[in-house]
Structure to design on (142 residues):
């Protein structure tokens, strides 16, 4: 999507989701060249964009605090647990995506059922869209 923009150029693309780092880190990293418009000129600048899910960002933020704020060597037990937590975050993302897809299918099925529902009203059959149209016409007459 970003690559299709005429004023943005993808300089570098690193997919740590398909190829996670050994510690479990996942993210999509893009180096982009984008225009910055000044009053008298246009400058091209490089920006880094990191795309993550909420679970990926939560894990990365905590991992960063542990490694960069902790003044001693991180114990091996904690390194193993961080890797396990990264795996759990991946499973959580996959589960949430599956649930999202399932509810979307259910909502679409319910919508179709509502649209095709038939009501008998004073000896006449009406579908919901027909009833809505009838109600609009009655409302217009008032």
């Amino acid at each position: 999507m970003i690559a299709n923009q005429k004023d943005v150029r993808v300089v570098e693309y690193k997919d740590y989701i398909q190829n996670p780092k050994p510690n479990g880190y996942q993210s999509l990293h893009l180096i982009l060249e984008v225009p910055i418009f000044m009053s008298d000129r246009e400058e091209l600048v490089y920006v880094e964009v990191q795309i993550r899910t909420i679970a990926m960002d939560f894990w990365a933020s905590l991992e960063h605090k542990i490694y960069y704020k902790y003044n001693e060597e991180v114990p091996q037990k904690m390194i193993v647990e961080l890797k396990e937590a990264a795996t759990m975050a991946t499973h959580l993302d996959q589960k949430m995506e599956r649930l999202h897809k399932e509810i979307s299918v259910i909502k679409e099925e319910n919508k179709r059922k509502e649209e095709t529902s038939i009501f008998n009203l004073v000896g006449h059959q009406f579908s919901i869209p027909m009833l809505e149209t009838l109600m609009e016409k009655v409302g217009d007459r008032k």
User: Anything to note?
Assistant: The helical segments are 54-69, 76-116, 128-141. Residues 76-116 form the longest helix (41 residues).
